[in-house]
Amino acid sequence: MTTNGPSQYNGMILLTGYLQRLFVAETIYRKIGETHDEARYERVKSLLDEAYAILPAFEETKNLTKAQINQLQLIAQQTEEFMKSYFKELPYTFKQKLAIVGSSLYAEQHVNAGIIRLGKLFNVEVNKDFHQRIKFYEQRTKMIDYLVATLQQNEEPEEQFTKPIDPWFNDVMKNKEFLLDDFKQVAKLLEFN
């Protein structure tokens, strides 16, 4: 058992952020009638539940046991495999772009909230930018929810809400390689051997 609680918690935040990204993408695909893999959705949901089950125990002890580290390593390996097929072949349809953008925003919101929680748990000062981003993510995820609900009802969304999707999608694609490399950081933070 290690005593590097803040790093471990940060690793869990990153890992669950990727699971959140995958889960939201699959959820959006399901809701808007885009081709999706139901088994993939169920497996990602199960991995997310497994990872979330470790968090309350960790928040009590502020340390991961060897068994928890091993479990998180298995979760991370499967998550990394799923992330390899997260990005589809170009060109993307609007619905596919929406799933990538929406899942990215929800994942970033999750990580932002996790970092704020880390600060409270370990009495560590967190940059005030993280607190200021709360509203930013709330506004954008509400917009994603509107777009998904509108498309789910086979209605045409308003242009003011569809217009930002392309530039946001382009931003995600610019960071694609960094996203896929993050699992090295997850492994380091969670002390996988």
UniProtKB/TrEMBL annotation:
Q: What is this protein called?
A: Uncharacterized protein
